[in-house]
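assembly run, all chains below
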Amino acid sequence: MDVLLNNLDLFGPFFLTTIELFAIAAVGSLVFGTILAMLRVSPVPVFRAIGTTYVTIVRNTPLTLVFAFFVFAYPLLNIVKVSYFTAAVVSLTVYTSAFICEVVRSGINTVPVGQAEAGRALGLNFGQILGQVVLPQALRSVVPPMISTLIALLKNSTIAGGFSVSEAGAIRSYISERGDNQMVALLWVALGFIILVSVLSFVQRSLEKRWSVAR
Amino acid sequence: MRIRTLAAGLLAGSLLLTACGKEGTPTSPGGDASGANTAALPTYTVAQNVDLAGSPVFTKIKSAGSITIGVKDDQPGLGFKDPTTGKFSGFDIEIARMVSAGLGFSEDKIKYTTVDSAAREQAISNGQVDLYVGTYTITDKRKALVSFAGPYFQAGQGLLVRADDNSITGPQTLKGKKVCSVTGSTPIQRVRDQGLTEPGNIVEFQKYSQCIDKLGTKDVDAVTTDDAILKGYAAQDKTLKVVGEPFSKEPYGIGLNKDDKVLRDKIDDLLQASLDDGTWQKIYDATLGKSGSTATKPTIVKY
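ok done. output:
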């Protein structure tokens, strides 16, 4: 308990940063990931190729390399200066989007082809079929894997600690320099993550319950 | 089509990887620049039939036949591993060799293990390393977790800046400047606590080499940590310089298992002997001394 109370000035703000990182990157990846999924199922071959290339490259690249790219290589290009927090959000979004994309795509695959055909018969265009018929059903069927991906995002955010973002993953380094017991500090950090993940699990359960009868 | 896409992807991916691989690559072990000082490293006599009754760690390493020493591998002039030969060099490494020889272990019986700052206490108390020699500042709080022999070196917090930058002359001139150090390290916590620069200007990475990299690309204006570490970098790279007086006291000790007083006293004796017979001075002259700066001998504190 002492380790937590002595270092509340660390645990509070650092976990807050973790939550901010997660929230922004989660919204970003949900939006960008869904757009990628739409690209991957689009009837235009070029769009499909772009989507596939993106997922292949990013999903197979370790997250630390994505971070290293945005923190060490990107600034050399001299385009727009970004803060380390922004770089972390971008890295996490870029990385998680590839996984969200595949989750959404697997959801799209669960919607029977007949639905899209019926939409087409009604005179809807591709965008309308996807946005109003297929995606709503697809998203409802992929709640558990979607939340799993978001939980992974939450935990992956600790990598930002090594790239100049003061978040929960950096707490251990601070505690070790302050001389408190690191093992105890790690347990508190773990407890913090358990609490945060519990919130996500709760969201998952309530969404599953709410959407289970939709089809 | 699909194969072509894959090929394009692999090409882009490999470009990305090469861009990353370049970051923070040290060029050569520190302190080989100034031709004036060409002091050679001393050789150490390996002690025979050393017996330390009542030391659990010594009993363990004696029966294992080799000693595992935790070190840093990315600090030129102190603890540096040459990426091409895999050989360790530097002041800390020499101290480790000298102490090992005094304990009866020759160079080929030493196993070096790289342990980062944040994992030191854990590595020592878990027994992953028998001794730790790597810019390890003795503090009272750390003494509650591990024991320290020494100090074997007296360092202090300093500032490393670009050689053509005259706007930073000491800790009081850091306002508005971007300052970099290792995540959560004591120097960066001091900068934050004393408000030497604005919180938004504090940059923290996993390794000093990454800070040095950012210093070169002007993304940060100063790197702060113990002057010994900074002098190692300055000796290696002439576009960098160390400025100002040290503004803290960082006595470096040899970390070892808590409560192993017998081993601690033995190492203290070995360090004292090296200070008395000039070996310590020879080690300094052949490593950190090549940066052109002098060092005051530390005073061993037995406890």
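The mean pLDDT of chain A is 91.

The interface with chain B takes residues 45, 49, 52-53, 56-57, 60-61, 65, 68-69, 72-73, 75-76, 83-84, 161-164, 166, 170, 172-183 of chain A (CB under 8 Å).

not gonna interpret more than that til we talk
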